[in-house]
Amino acid sequence: MAARMTRQRTAVVEALDELADFRSAQQLHETLRARGESVGLATVYRALQALAEASEVDVLRAEDGESLYRRCARREHHHHLVCRHCGRTVEIDGPTVEAWASKVAAAQGFDDIEHTIELWGTCADCRAASAG
Amino acid sequence: MAARMTRQRTAVVEALDELADFRSAQQLHETLRARGESVGLATVYRALQALAEASEVDVLRAEDGESLYRRCARREHHHHLVCRHCGRTVEIDGPTVEAWASKVAAAQGFDDIEHTIELWGTCADCRAASAG
DNA sequence: AATAAGGTGAGAATCGTTCTCATGACATCG
DNA sequence: CGATGTCATGAGAACGATTCTCACCTTATT
């Protein structure tokens, strides 16, 4: 249990707090650079990793495999509806789905069930932008 | 629309037909090598890519980001319950979940919805094996 | 201040995947 | 049967995200 509060970690957390949407480690690094906070890329990765382990941030994989990070409002288990264009995110929960998932898995004799349930789409703003 | 049927592509398809579980491109390459079919790794990737585009194989991302491929029995939309240890796969469908997903997305004004719903677990055999 | 336990960062190293490009296989045309 | 155009192949280079290395700083703690 490390977790020393350093300038760099503080910067990463603050950046996450200000950005509402899912961002990649590299985007965050770029953001920090742009605002003058000098933080190494490796450090950004390490900070995000630590935060993810502590459940301080949510991680999900973009369709191309890149990991995206976000500081979610709710700490409890939930899922996301993410705009694949701008990263805009809506937190959703689905008790129905949770129940369905564990029932199905148990029926097949599987243990240690985890599920990946994410919704991707185009948000209203991005649709308007591309249609306009 | 290419799709010339070559020795290599045939070999990849046959290997997939014999393997019931999700496999990575590298695993397939290794399998082919082992049985004496000489096929380049790049070719395996290309064949899998073409098959995936033609919806001949299903692709999903392992938890570590690696792509896994499988020739599924049903061509229609469905999901999977996959053993994270041996790749053993059960095809599942969830009309409930489909309905839920599109309802939620529409309620938020999102378009072009796609969803990722996969279940990961430890199958009975792998549990028995690790339990001794 | 001294020190121990971490943290940092530049660049090297990984690893899956894709690209390059010279060569090979095929079907068609003559 | 051989020439031709087209696509496929494969060895290795290139890529891109992520992780590791390691010498050097920071942050608590005494």
Automatic annotation (TrEMBL), chains A, B:
Family matches, as InterPro entries: FUR, Fur_C, WH-like_DNA-bd_sf, WH_DNA-bd_sf
Predominant location category: cytoplasm
UniProt xrefs under Pfam families: FUR
Record localization: Cytoplasm
Domain of life, per lineage: Bacteria
Keywords, alphabetical: Cytoplasm, DNA-binding, Metal-binding, Repressor, Transcription, Transcription regulation, Zinc
Family stated for the protein in its record: Belongs to the Fur family.
Subunit architecture: Homodimer.
Protein name as annotated: Transcriptional repressor
Organism phylogeny: Bacteria, Bacillati, Actinomycetota, Actinomycetes, Micrococcales
